[in-house]
Write a structure and sequence with these properties.
This protein has 277 residues and is α/β, with parallel strands linked by helices. The chain has two domains: 6-83 and 203-276, HAD superfamily/HAD-like (Rossmann fold, 3-Layer(aba) Sandwich), CATH 3.40.50; 88-200, Hypothetical Protein, Haloacid Dehalogenase-like Hydrolase, Chain: A, domain 2. The protein has eleven helices and 14 strands. Strands 8-7-6-9-11-10 form a six-stranded mixed β-sheet. A five-stranded parallel β-sheet has the order 2-1-12-13-14. The chain has a three-stranded antiparallel β-sheet with strand order 3-4-5, with helices on one face. A hairpin with a 2-residue loop joins strand 6 (105-110) and strand 7. It is globular and about 55 Å long. The N and C termini lie close together (8 Å).
């Protein structure tokens, strides 16, 4: 049995089931692992305040990897340990390009707060896959007038994340291929069917996991990571044990060391029991 000291996991499609629930079995398994001295680390595309309360309120969580690895967050001290951000001028150029693409809306995350141009914010319901996503995106993106939005991006110290939403699957696939050619030193991934997540090239969950393991003096071999989406690939590759959910995309399944059950059958809990208990 591996000597696991740190468990990292994505949220949507991984820790949480398709109803966005943390099941009692999974919660109890996390509690048992934490009682053994294992660090329990959410690793998500969300910023800390956007993680569901029932996860943030777990008192055994000390650290979180947020914004796809753009930030490693010390939960108890309420501070960032490291940030990897898109330079302001590059983010501004992206915003101008995105303004000319039909059938998308986009946001920017700066200092762990989300912002959108007001006219895009008003279109949110038309670009989401369900009411849960409408509420999630609308409530945590502050609408700004266009010039105010551009000034904010232009003058910030850096943008942690940009997210594009589109229901056009062909357009999404085309953008995932084309944008990396136009914007180098930038990482384009996805976590759900209607989004593209954009970070600085160094902002990867895998890099953040390596940083946190070194910070905590935990050998990378002593880590296990669970994920299901494109933005989890680097973390699955970096961890001592990379565990893919059965519901994972092909890219995750291809690099995983182990495939657990899907998110609706407590796949994270099953993997923890296999390798930690």
């Amino acid at each position: 049995m591996a000597d696991i000291k740190l468990i990292a996991f994505d949220l949507d499609g991984t820790l949480l089931n398709s109803k966005k629930e943390l099941t009692p079995n999974t919660r109890e398994t996390l509690e048992k692992a934490a009682s053994m001295g294992i660090e329990i680390v959410p690793s998500t595309g969300r910023f800390w305040n956007l993680i569901p309360d029932y996860v943030r309120e777990l008192d055994f969580i000390n650290y979180a990897i947020t914004l796809n690895g753009a930030e490693v967050y010390d939960v108890k001290k309420s501070k960032s340990l490291v940030k990897f951000e898109i330079p302001a001028q590059r983010a501004l150029k992206m915003a101008r390009v995105f303004d000319d693409i039909d059938e998308i809306i986009y946001d920017c995350v700066i200092d762990s707060k989300g912002y959108m141009r007001r006219e895009l914010h008003e279109k949110i319901p038309a670009f989401m896959v369900g009411e849960w996503q409408v509420k999630l995106v609308a409530d945590f993106r502050k609408p700004l007038e266009s010039e105010e939005f551009y000034e904010l991006v232009k003058n910030c110290e850096g943008v942690q994340k940009i997210q594009i939403f589109t229901l056009d699957k062909n357009l999404r696939a085309d953008l995932l291929k084309a944008l990396p050619v136009v914007f180098r030193k930038t990482l384009f991934t996805s976590s759900i069917s209607n989004n593209i997540e954009i970070n600085d090239m160094n902002a990867k969950k895998g890099n953040a996991l390596k940083f946190l393991a070194e910070y905590l003096k935990i050998p990378i071999e002593g880590t296990i990571a669970f994920g299901d989406g494109l933005n989890d690939v680097s973390m699955i590759e970096a961890a001592g044990i990379g565990a893919a959910m059965k519901n994972s995309c092909k890219e995750v399944l291809d690099v995983a060391d182990f495939v657990t059950t899907d998110c609706d059958h407590d796949g994270v809990a099953e993997g923890i029991k296999k390798f930690c208990f």
